[in-house]
Amino acid sequence: MPELPEVETVVRTLEKSLMNETIESLDLRVPSLVEGASLPLSACIFKTFRLFSRRGKYLIFGFDDASFLVVHLRMEGKFHLYKKGCEPAPTKHTHLIFKTHHYVVHYLDTRKFSRFALTNDLDAYLESKHLGLEPFDEQLTSSYLLKRYAHRTRCIKTILLDQSIIAGIGNIYADEILFACKINPQRQACSLSKRECDKIILNTRAVLHNAILQGGTTIRSYTSSLDVSGRFQISLNAYGRKGKPCHRCQTEMVGRKIDGRSTVWCPKCQKV
């Protein structure tokens, strides 16, 4: 699933081409991708892109009339952007097509889990999603985490995935953050000290910043728009490395599912 760095990469990639472009036509092929409370996506026609942003894992496209198209890629949603006249024929997984003066954009999702919403009230829409702080928000402090982690007996790996606490972290980066912190993913969140919370904040920002600089992590289910591949998978220290030597101490990495999510860690560096 695309996480914060991948979504940020998509935002930056599309912004370079679509800023100030006007949607001339839109073909929604799978209406179920649109949230029930959304305005009809056909209302996007004749709107001009003025803003490209992100909140957690949500992409936000702002238009000239102060309306917003919000997109959640879920597991395998992808935008493919082509110069007009160079676009391929739609496939069975092409669920949305829109055209501007210079470009044609295809939205593909093999699993149809993506969600679109057109809204005139972005703040109210995002508030309904109960998103926590952004990782780079100055309000994200150890005091904030200690308060949110208090009485939480679930594993810290699971709590890092809770979008109501910190928005944007998914399975890949949760493993990477905990490896960088030398914190065992099975630790109860309520057992973390102020110092450990400070480490989580520091390493969350460092890991995500580095991933953004490298264009995210390209895995089987994710490549960026314009077929731009991320490079952060080369830098992975934990995710997907079960059975391989730890990059710090050479101990064999171990893994198991925690609350249904595959998790990998070093049993020596990340002791319980």
UniProtKB/TrEMBL annotation:
Keywords: DNA damage, DNA repair, DNA-binding, Glycosidase, Hydrolase, Lyase, Metal-binding, Multifunctional enzyme, Zinc, Zinc-finger. Gene3D superfamilies: 1.10.8.50, MutM-like, N-terminal (3.20.190.10). Residues 2-114 form the Formamidopyrimidine-DNA glycosylase catalytic domain. SUPFAM superfamilies: Glucocorticoid receptor-like (DNA-binding domain) (SSF57716), N-terminal domain of MutM-like DNA repair proteins (SSF81624), S13-like H2TH domain (SSF46946). One of its GO terms (biological process) is base-excision repair. It catalyses: Hydrolysis of DNA containing ring-opened 7-methylguanine residues, releasing 2,6-diamino-4-hydroxy-5-(N-methyl)formamidopyrimidine; 2'-deoxyribonucleotide-(2'-deoxyribose 5'-phosphate)-2'-deoxyribonucleotide-DNA = a 3'-end 2'-deoxyribonucleotide-(2,3-dehydro-2,3-deoxyribose 5'-phosphate)-DNA + a 5'-end 5'-phospho-2'-deoxyribonucleoside-DNA + H(+). One of its GO terms (molecular function) is damaged DNA binding. Its EC number is 3.2.2.23, 4.2.99.18. Its cofactor is Zn(2+). Residues 237-271 form the FPG-type domain. PROSITE patterns: FPG_CAT (PS51068), ZF_FPG_2 (PS51066). Belongs to the FPG family. PANTHER family: FORMAMIDOPYRIMIDINE-DNA GLYCOSYLASE. Monomer. NCBIfam families: fpg, PRK01103.1. This is Formamidopyrimidine-DNA glycosylase. It comes from Erysipelothrix larvae.
